[in-house]
Amino acid sequence: QVQLAESGGGLVQAGGSLRLSCAVSGRTFRNYAMGWFRQAPGKEREFVAAISWGGYSTYYADSVKGRFTISRDNAKNTVYLQMNSLKSEDTAVYYCAASPSLSGSYYYIGANEYDYWGQGTQVTVSS
């Protein structure tokens, strides 16, 4: 069993920054591709960013490209999402997710490709 716990959410003004963390426990973290998703009120959950377990490959939604950066520290079993130049439309609950992967280069962008999910952390951007 894999447990994921997000932290770092909060209230920030537009243009500000936040860094989300997702601590993973229970299995060998370095064998898992990781992703971040978000869900705004009244909307479906959407993909934000993904990273392969080796950290070699990353992918971003167009809406966050150039503003958000996903990274991971396999020694700390943690994945991060650095969010800069935040906009009001970034307001959502942010979830991290994990998927076992055979390759250090693979990442996944579909929610149904992830086996484990955290409880989410609220990010609110005031305009």
Q: Can you summarize the main beta sheet? A: 7 strands, mixed
Number of DSSP helical runs: 0
Contiguous uncertain segments of 5+ residues: none
Distance between the termini: 40 Å
Secondary-structure element series: EEEEEEEEEEE
Kindly state the number of beta strands. 11
Instruction: Compute the CA-based radius of gyration.
Output: 13 Å
β-sheet strand percentage: over 45%
Please state the overall shape, judged from the principal axes of the Cα atoms: globular
Category by helix and strand content: mainly beta
Mean model confidence by pLDDT: 94
User: Helical proportion?
Assistant: under 10%
What can you see in these coordinates?
There is one protein chain. It is built from no helices and 11 strands. 35% of the residues are buried. Helices cover 0% and strands 50% of the residues. The protein is mainly β. The model has no long low-confidence stretch (mean pLDDT 94). The strands form 2 sheets. Strands 2, 4, 5, 6, 9, 10 and 11 form a 7-stranded mixed β-sheet that branches. Strands 1-3-8-7 form a 4-stranded antiparallel β-sheet, with no helix packed on it.
Helix and strand topology:
Blueprint: E1 3-7, E2 10-13, E3 18-25, E4 32-39, E5 46-51, E6 58-60, E7 68-73, E8 78-83, E9 92-100, E10 116-117, E11 121-126
Parallel strand pairs: 2-11
Antiparallel strand pairs: 1-3, 3-8, 4-5, 4-9, 5-6, 7-8, 9-10, 9-11
